[in-house]
């Protein structure tokens, strides 16, 4: 038997990308960005870095993760955008890594105001940054990697590696978030979700959620925000052929969309009565369970029959508990 060691031929970027997706459940969502940045050092060695995401139309970060930098770095960076020459170059070359050396020669950079106020103050000499932009949601991700040693610039190979991984960082963190959401939250069947701020601006969005919007709200003025008012937390609203529901998540909101079904057009009380009666309870039993009079159950059920176009409990139960197609 040949005892020679089999060489490892797996591309390091492929290995890293696989780890991003496979670790989605293993890493808590609130720690995922910091973990992914640390792991990225195995593909592109760096001393520190940042990963910021937000809305490109509003030019602000929703999330900002630092690696080996103080939390105050975000405020310092945001306060100096007007004098940061790498930012407009990145926005002109989306999804393409930009090295600060492409923007300013060393002689200028190390004497520049941005170096003195930001990078030099944090021991940063070499910068490689990429902005990925998602056209459908208006969300962007900025990944910047830093080195201290002036004599250790980023190579062309490392630039190519960053170009490959930035897209996956954007998608993997969203994938991980919604995996945990599906596991930890009760949600309507056949729905898709998005996370928005109080103004309805997207923070995260599943592709199917965007599919629903494009089909049901074509030509909307701003594709980066909800095309309808944010539903009251816990309430379901019917929007034509869609239902929408939201729930608070800290200072954000999770919004669910799903195609309307017959029961979605009922009031909460009507649905409560329908589910009780569909379980086989009598009017009296349903009334006792819900805490209303039997006559209330009868009156509501009469209106439900007219709304749904059914004529018996059997037909009603078939809507509540549809049999799978053969």
Description of the molecule:
The protein is α+β, with helices and mostly antiparallel strands and 326 residues long. It folds into 3 domains: 12-182, 2-Layer Sandwich (Beta-Lactamase), CATH 3.30.450; 192-260, Profilin-like (3-Layer(aba) Sandwich); 263-320, Winged helix-like DNA-binding domain superfamily/Winged helix DNA-binding domain (Arc Repressor Mutant, subunit A, Orthogonal Bundle). Helix content is 40%, strand content 20%. It has helices at 12-22, 32-40, 73-78, 86-92, 100-103, 106-109, 113-119, 156-184, 207-216, 268-278, 283-290, 294-308, 313-320, and strands at residues 48-55, 60-67, 98-99, 126-133, 139-147, 192-196, 202-205, 236-239, 242-249, 252-259. The strands form 2 sheets. Strands 2-1-5-4-3 form a 5-stranded antiparallel beta sheet, with helices on both faces. The protein has a 5-stranded antiparallel beta sheet with strand order 7-6-10-9-8, covered by helices on one side. α1 (12-22) runs parallel beside α8 (156-184), α10 (268-278) crosses α11 (283-290) and α10 (268-278) crosses α12. The longest helix is centred in the middle third of the chain and has 29 residues, at 156-184. The chain is elongated and about 85 Å long. The mean pLDDT is 89.
